[in-house]
């Protein structure tokens, strides 16, 4: 076994093919609306699948099977929250977005509260997305390095270089089209792995059930009703039923309702109804996908005879699936699975580059004197310049990391979620609290960010609660500011 010449050929053909196809499919862009929003003519089903691919990073591809391998299916509680959150976004956020001809998620805040808050929230998004995406790009190179033996810089350049080419030339149309292709490539690799495992086991699925329920354990358990005995223990415990449902719901409302990475696609649909259909397709597909990856982890557990990842000589459960790929997949199939790993990474990276460029151009640059003086050709040229700049920044930033044990990696992967609560609370202030004005929303947003910094610095509260805490802090501070302002006779 191992990675053979044919596997390398498959990976190279995939990289070149997906890049060329992305460029050809995208066609010609004559305006930033074409480049960043696909002319607002994207089909709902392609947008739905694109969102799935954008939010499924290589870390998901590798880590979710590892969660079930070392534990059980409690993560599904969070996924149910993901579904509920998407349903709320489709009912509450999307109609608000389609009442105006919005260009970015933060355009809503600009129309509701003023241009300065639009620029402020967009800048916060850009800073946190750059930090999180640069680190995430490095992290996605880890399984590629483990499977192929390529160095980290080479792995990063493979992922980043090819992704940047089609994102730079093709805009959102290329990103969405290739997301759809990459979604089915990485799922095909995962399905092939599960089929091979079940074929290898003497009794197939019966062996998976036997190992998952051996010695009194139940790795099929997916509901955790424990409370820990106290409030502090409850907030520290990962994947409780209430924590999973609330955490998944609020995290998804923030990511799919306020993060330009995903909102950009929802704004590219032809109509509000198409946008809602795209999001509910994503909601349904993501539930099935996470369940499949968790079951794949149980299959791996049976394949390795119920051994722990420590007994396999591994540092973390994240290394179980790469170990299986390297040691057990036949030539050709290993190349397909690595192409799937690259596909999940490239879908996330292309989305990050496009979102950063669109937020920079539409929220910040377009309102400047230079931006207002450009014709359509100049607008597209600057849109591509920002795409190139952010692509190079993400690739260069990922190159700065040389140690997989660096704690900055773990911190970086949490950076984007730090701002989610504040952003979600600010959008709620705009949607549901009609008497709040820009100063209230700005103070609320700052308080939400400060609350999350305090939570991370001084507590060990599980991440599933972070978005809810930031959102509540923003709403409380924003409304407190409104009440004080009104009592002092301020503007209403």
Question: Which features does this protein show?
Answer:
492 residues; single chain; mainly alpha; 20 helices; Sodium/glucose cotransporter
General description of the model:
The protein has 492 residues and is an all-alpha fold. The chain has a single domain (5-416), classed as Sodium/glucose cotransporter, CATH 1.20.1730.10. It is 77% helix and 0% strand. It is built from 20 helices and no strands. Helix 6 packs antiparallel against helix 7 (115-148). The radius of gyration is 23 Å and the shape is globular.
Helix content: over 70%
Q: Any idea what the CATH architecture is? A: Up-down Bundle
List the domain count as a whole number. Answer: 1
CATH superfamily: Sodium/glucose cotransporter
Order of helices and strands: HHHHHHHHHHHHHHHHHHHH
Number of DSSP helices?
20
End-to-end Cα distance, whole Å, is 70 Å
Q: Measured on Cα atoms, how large is the radius of gyration?
A: 23 Å
CATH class type: Mainly Alpha
């Amino acid at each position: 076994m191992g990675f053979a010449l044919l596997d390398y050929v498959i990976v190279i053909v995939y990289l070149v093919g997906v890049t060329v196809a992305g460029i050809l499919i995208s066609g010609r862009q004559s305006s930033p609306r074409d480049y960043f929003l696909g002319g607002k003519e994207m089909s709902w089903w392609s947008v739905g699948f694109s969102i799935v691919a954008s939010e499924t990073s290589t870390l998901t591809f590798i880590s979710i099977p590892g969660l079930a391998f070392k534990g059980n299916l409690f993560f599904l509680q969070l996924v149910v929250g993901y579904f509920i959150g998407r349903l709320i976004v489709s009912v509450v956020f999307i109609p608000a977005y389609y009442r105006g001809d919005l260009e970015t998620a933060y355009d809503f805040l600009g129309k509701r509260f003023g241009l300065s808050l639009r620029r402020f929230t967009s800048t916060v998004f850009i800073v946190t997305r750059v930090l999180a995406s640069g680190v995430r790009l490095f992290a996605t190179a880890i399984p590629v390095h483990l499977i192929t033996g390529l160095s980290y810089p080479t792995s990063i350049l493979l992922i980043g270089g090819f992704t940047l080419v089609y994102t730079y030339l093709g805009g959102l149309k290329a990103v969405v089209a290739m997301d759809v292709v990459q979604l089915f490539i990485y799922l095909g690799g995962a399905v092939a792995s599960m089929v091979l495992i079940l074929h290898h086991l003497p009794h197939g699925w019966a062996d998976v059930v036997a190992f998952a329920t051996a010695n009194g354990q139940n790795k099929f358990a997916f509901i955790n009703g424990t409370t820990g005995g106290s409030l502090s223990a409850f907030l520290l415990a990962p994947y409780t039923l209430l924590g999973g449902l609330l955490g998944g719901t609020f995290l998804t409302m923030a990511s799919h309702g306020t993060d330009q990475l995903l909102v950009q696609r929802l704004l590219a649909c032809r109509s509000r109804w198409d946008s809602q259909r795209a999001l509910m397709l994503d909601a349904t597909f993501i539930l099935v996908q996470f369940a499949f990856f968790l079951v794949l982890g149980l299959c791996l557990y049976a394949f390795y005879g119920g051994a722990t990842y420590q007994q396999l000589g591994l540092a973390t459960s994240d290394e179980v699936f790469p170990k299986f790929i390297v040691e057990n997949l036949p030539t050709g199939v290993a190349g397909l699975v690595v192409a799937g790993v690259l596909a999940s990474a490239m879908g996330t990276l292309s989305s990050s580059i496009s979102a950063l460029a669109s937020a920079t151009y539409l929220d910040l640059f377009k309102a400047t004197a230079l931006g207002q003086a450009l014709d359509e050709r100049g607008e597209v040229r600057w849109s591509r310049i920002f795409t190139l700049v952010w692509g190079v920044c993400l690739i260069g930033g990922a190159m700065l990391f040389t140690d997989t044990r660096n704690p900055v990696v773990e911190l970086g992967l949490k950076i984007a979620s730090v701002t989610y609560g504040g952003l979600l609370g600010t959008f709620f202030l705009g949607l549901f609290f009609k008497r709040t004005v820009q100063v209230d929303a700005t103070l609320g947003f700052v308080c939400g960010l400060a609350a999350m910094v305090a939570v991370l610095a001084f507590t060990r509260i599980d991440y599933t609660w972070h978005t809810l805490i930031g959102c509540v802090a923003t709403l409380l501070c924003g409304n407190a500011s409104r009440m004080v302002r009104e009592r002092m006779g301020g503007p209403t």
